[in-house]
Write a structure and sequence with these properties.
two-stranded antiparallel ribbon; alpha+beta
Length: 93
């Protein structure tokens, strides 16, 4: 099942899909996991977010909107981007 976040009937975020979402109940931590083979293709450290591809920028925007909504209404989710890169510096989105 594709996870979606709704405020009543209104979709929170956009039509982006996240690879995995884990939630045990409404009181505990939510985890979002997005998998990429190479994070530098999706989120290069040398570019501002405005220069990302439309698809990748949409995914990052979705994660921000989901985080803001859930943090204000339920609990703050942990968001992970899993990748194969071992030599990429930590980066905040």
């Amino acid at each position: 099942m594709e996870p979606t976040i709704k405020n009543g009937r209104q979709l929170v975020g956009n039509q982006s899909k996240i690879d995995s979402v884990f939630c045990t109940d409404d009181e505990n931590l939510l985890e979002f996991v997005e998998c990429k083979s190479n994070i530098t293709i999706v989120m290069p450290s040398t570019l501002p977010i405005t220069e990302l591809s439309r698809r990748d920028r949409k995914k990052i925007d979705y994660l921000r909107l989901a985080y803001d909504y859930l943090s204000g209404n339920l609990c703050s989710p942990e968001i992970y981007i899993a990748c194969f890169n071992v030599d990429y510096d930590d980066s905040e989105i």
